[in-house]
Amino acid sequence: MKSDYLKHDATALAELVARGDATPDELLDVALALVEERNPALNAVVMLQEGTARAAIRARLPAGPFRGVPFLLKDLGAEAVDFPTNNGSRLMAGMRWSYDSEIFLRMRAAGLNSFGRTCSPELGIGPVTEAQVYGGPTRNPWKTGHTSGGSSGGAGAAVAAGIVPAAHGSDGGGSVRIPASSCGLVGFKPTRARLPDGPAVGEGWAGMAIDGFLTRSLRDTAALLDATRGPDLGAPYWPPPMQCSFAQAMRAEPGRLRVRFATTTLSGDALHPECVAAVERTARLLEDLGHEVEPFAIPEGLDVEDMMQAWTRIVACGTALSVRSALKGRPLDPAMVEGVTRGAIALADTLSGADYLEAVNRIHAFGRRMARVFLNCDVLVTPTLATPPARVGQLKPDNEDFVAYRNGPGGVFEYSPFTAIFNASGQPAVSLPLHWSADDLPVGVHLAMAFGQDERLMSLAAQIERAASWADKQQEIIDQGPREG
Asked: Catalytic annotation on 151?
């Protein structure tokens, strides 16, 4: 059963169960054995709830598209009564939820059998997963000396290593797409509000955060998005309605698209040669597929730096709110949170309500500038990150200057200059595993489209997957297990 498990995506595993060739218990047995075998090298999976998963099987899992497939929830969000959480923080270690979130209910209704959580940086801050609550960093299966990304870094590592074929994530500044790039996976961020956020909150980080998934195959991503999309009761706003499902979009041709590709950041700064090579290779592929392909001309006044400064203020305020809510009026022991979290709280303390609203307005103004970009093109292609996956410790969250950690030299924005752009604008974007560096580290390619164009982006991604499948490359590390380096 293990060999079958490792070579199948979530859709194929569900088909085994539907045909009677495997049982949910057998699949869970394999997943738990893989946690025991592979997780020590990765530190990706935490808070196992085998009893909850076995009870769900005995109660007859829902007859959804993923019935019986083992699944992991990110240790941040996805609130569920039966799944305690740390939210990536010693301050909140072992806390329990009194309710099930709508996204969890929809994942459960799809037949997914959740049995644990995956590591996240504290409160989702940062493109690496190195939170003290887990006793050490989360590592990349391709080379364990490198990061698996963040904030859904545990999810990325667990999927890339074959422990599960798909896992829950979330994305407020690239937190699905960054680990997808780092671990050689698919990471799709839908249009703002495409997935539910309730019942406890109406939006995260001023609407920039959204749930998502880390998967090996695009068809798994499409089916997971179809199973969970749509507003929930009382949603403060809705995205443009979709004209077809994500699965249907995969089967549709995208048409001839105006493709623009960037080999610098959108501020004009240089990128790592492997990232440039990834984009140029993808541009040639898209041209071969019949699209109109030209270099991207950065429009005057785009001012990505101003957006990131506003993003930093909004996230600092959100972080301070989360910590103070957990404290319930108690004083904070600084040792209970990371240095970056202390820095975020310190920054938030300097900001007024007017400052926060001004930052939100700057984000929205940037979104309007990005909307104009797509008047002159249909898809923007960049690398997902500015470099291949960073070494563990390079972006360790111990810097108490939150602005410097995010926006200073050697900081997060320099490492990840593209992903947060599309959280700010709310536009759909996807990281696809289209390149590996000379030393065999994954390098994701990032594709983004106009607000609401989720179906067309999925159609293009499917066309690329058919033309340049990444499954065989992914299988190398799944078969072999985590590599040192």
From this structure: yes
CA distances from 310 to 33, 206, 317, 356, 407 (A): 45, 11, 11, 9, 11
CA 403 – CA 314 distance, rounded (Å): 12
| Rg of the chain taking only CA atoms, in angstroms | 21
Give which of 189, 181, 246, 227 is closest to 470, Cα–Cα.
181
Q: What's the mean pLDDT when you consider all of the chain? A: 98
Given the residues 89, 152, 175, 416, the one annotated as active site: 175
Write down the H helix ranges in 189-272.
218-228, 246-251
Tokens of residue 396, six digits: 């360790």
Residue of 385, 16, 383 lying closest to 165 (CA atoms): 16
**The two three-digit tokens of residue 463, written as one number:** 């066309």
Q: Give the SS3 label for residue 73.
A: strand
Residue 314: C-alpha distances to residues 309, 363, 403 (Å)? 9, 9, 12
Contacts for 284 with CB less than 8 Å, ≥ 6 apart: none
Specify the 3-state DSSP secondary structure of 269.
Answer: coil
Q: Which of 114, 151, 322, 431 is catalytic?
A: 151
pLDDT bin (cut points 50, 70, 90) of residue 202 is: confident
What distance in Å separates the CA atoms of residue 41 and residue 278, rounded to the nearest whole number? 28
Cβ distance 37 to 160 under 8 Å? no
By residue count, the chain amounts to 485
- Phi/psi of residue 261, nearest 5 degrees: -125, 145
Q: Is the pTM of this model over 0.90?
A: yes
Helix (H, G, I), strand (E, B) or coil at 454: helix
CA–CA separation, 319 vs 275, rounded Å?
31
Question: How crowded is residue 400: how many other Cβ atoms within 10 Å of its Cβ?
Answer: 18
Q: Rounded to a whole number, what is the distance in angstroms from the first to the last CA of the chain?
A: 30
**How many CB atoms are located within 10 Å of the residue 172 CB?**
26
* 175 included as an active-site residue: yes
Is position 74 annotated as part of the catalytic site? yes
Residue 376 main-chain phi, psi, to 5 deg: -110, 0
How far apart are the C-alpha atoms of 215 and 224, rounded to whole Å? 9
Walk me through the domains of the chain, giving residue ranges and CATH numbers. Answer: 2-480 (3.90.1300.10)
The tens digit of pLDDT for each residue in 280-294 reads 999 999 999 999 999
| Three-point CA angle 460, 476, 182, nearest 5° | 55
Residue range 395-432, pLDDT digits in tens:
999 999 999 999 999 999 999 999 999 999 999 999 99
Residue 51: which H helix or E strand, with range? helix 50-58
